[in-house]
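Structure first, sequence second, as always.
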């Protein structure tokens, strides 16, 4: 018996949805066809891949070991099909469609200009950009849903390739009518406008500020960078954000850069990839500064 992509597709769908019925609905197969494909796959390997817990199918140790390679094989087969359908040469040129995930500051303020430059050079290219917080981006990379992810904070998940992309300057700002100079005691006692836990911006800000402030007096948590900017403009508190996200309100005089005793602040932006995903030539054209995985400078996240 030969292993087939259909069997792997059913296996992954069952792992994701917990039953052959739900898996069949997800991939447009009947329940009986899904069950048969799973039985064939387990017979091929000579071992069950799921534990039967009530009506649910739960991956056992053998199934967990198969899941990531199966996803990688299925995704790479889809990439090959996509390249051939687009008329590109898989051996010499990248696909015409790139799928990226990026955390909010990168997706909203850094990537649009790069995508525009890529499309001027290659008008036939397509870029699907998905924006989430850093935890969501890493999860999409783990599930092999995207070609690469870009995040604003460290990646703590094992088994992914994590390499520096570029440095991002951070600045402390407040409403335009606030005093220009702030002491450390002023900063400790004020209200800080922060992103939610799981955001790369939140983690980077805490890493940059807490060694100097040893805590925040008050905080107000907001769900995205734009909300933090508007809250700072309204005088609700002080924010530490990427300089890239603040060009417009600073130029319009709606926010003020604060002079503080803090040292220059910056964070590293990171490229995150799954080792089972191909490095597409179009990614190098789009990201530019990124290290090609497997070359000098790339590092797995242990």
């Amino acid at each position: 018996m030969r292993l087939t992509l259909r069997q792997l597709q059913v296996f992954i769908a069952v792992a994701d949805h917990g039953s052959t019925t739900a898996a069949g609905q997800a991939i447009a197969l009947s329940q009986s066809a899904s069950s048969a494909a799973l039985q064939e796959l387990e017979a091929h390997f000579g071992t069950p891949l799921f534990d039967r817990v009530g009506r649910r199918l739960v991956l056992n140790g053998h199934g967990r070991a198969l899941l990531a390679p199966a996803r990688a094989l299925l995704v790479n087969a889809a990439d090959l099909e996509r390249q051939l359908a687009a008329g590109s040469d898989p051996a010499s040129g990248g696909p015409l469609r790139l799928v990226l995930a990026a955390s909010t500051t990168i997706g909203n303020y850094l990537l649009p200009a790069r995508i525009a430059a890529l499309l001027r050079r290659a008008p036939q290219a397509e870029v699907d950009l998905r924006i989430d917080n850093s935890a969501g981006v890493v999860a999409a990379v783990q599930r092999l849903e995207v070609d690469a992810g870009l995040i604003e904070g460290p990646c703590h998940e094992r088994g992914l390739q994590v390499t520096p992309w570029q440095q991002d300057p951070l600045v402390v700002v407040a409403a335009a009518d606030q005093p220009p100079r702030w002491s450390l005691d002023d900063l400790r006692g004020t209200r800080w406008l922060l992103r939610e836990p799981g955001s790369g911006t939140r983690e980077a800000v805490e890493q940059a500020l807490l060694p100097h402030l040893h805590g925040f007096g008050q905080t107000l948590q907001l769900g995205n960078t734009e909300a933090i900017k508007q809250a700072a403009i309204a005088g609700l508190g002080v924010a530490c954000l990427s300089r890239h996200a603040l060009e417009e309100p600073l130029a319009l005089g709606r926010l003020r850069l604060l002079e503080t005793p803090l040292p220059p602040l910056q964070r590293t932006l990171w490229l995150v990839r799954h080792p089972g995903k191909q490095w597409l030539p179009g990614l190098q054209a789009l990201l530019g500064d990124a290290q090609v995985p497997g070359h000098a400078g790339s590092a797995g996240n242990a």
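Margin note: Residues 5-86 form a domain with the Arc Repressor Mutant, subunit A fold (CATH 1.10.10.10).
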